[in-house]
Automatic annotation (TrEMBL):
Biological classification of the source: Bacteria, Bacillati, Actinomycetota, Actinomycetes, Streptosporangiales
Superkingdom assignment: Bacteria
SUPFAM superfamilies membership: HAD-like
Pfam families: HAD_2 (PF13419)
Name of this chain's protein: HAD family phosphatase
PANTHER family hit by this protein: 2-DEOXYGLUCOSE-6-PHOSPHATE PHOSPHATASE 2, PSEUDOURIDINE-5'-PHOSPHATASE
CDD domains named in the record: HAD_BPGM-like
Provenance organism: Microbispora tritici
Amino acid sequence: MDAVLFDMDGLLVDPEGVWFEVETEVVTRLGGTWGPEHQEQLVGGSWDRTVRYMLELTRADVDPMLVGQWLIDGMESRLSADVTPMPGALDLLRGLADHGVRTALVTSSLRIIADAVLKAVGREHFEVIVTADDVTCTKPHPEPYLTAAGLLSVDPGRCVALEDSPNGVASATAAGCRVVAVPGVLPIAQAPGRVVMPSLLDVDVDFLRALVR
């Protein structure tokens, strides 16, 4: 195993409550209403898609850049205080470090959001960080995972990607990675090249290495 590549939202941390708060505030500001059924549409999606969806939902005539800034301001002010690592996340990261396994963070969030989350998780755990700012196409396109593997100079086929959403799983699979899915809001089925686990508490270094052998 050359490296382990981690998704962020829903896998390493659970910011869905924070996201829901901020999204509700922004959509209310746009003159609409927001519910769990709307949030589910955006799991694992890109920042641009979130803004586009909100504007389509509310039919508000507002500059997408302004809506995006409202989201950024709301998230940044809450994340460092309200987000904690998911169960097993820090233990797994420490175990990988103890075994000398290289790691990368691969997220569809913007760099400014990733930086805020990493205050809770620890920037030092990741050799490489790939955000929406670093790619042309976000998940489910394979570019984010291919970019991370390229920056690490490793073969994607000898990497394990850990994901919580169908979009993320599709991205990592298309890049050629082995995939461990820990489903969050949306269900994910078992499939060739993919293992579905209930929690990161059930994942350790030996388990990940066995997937690449």
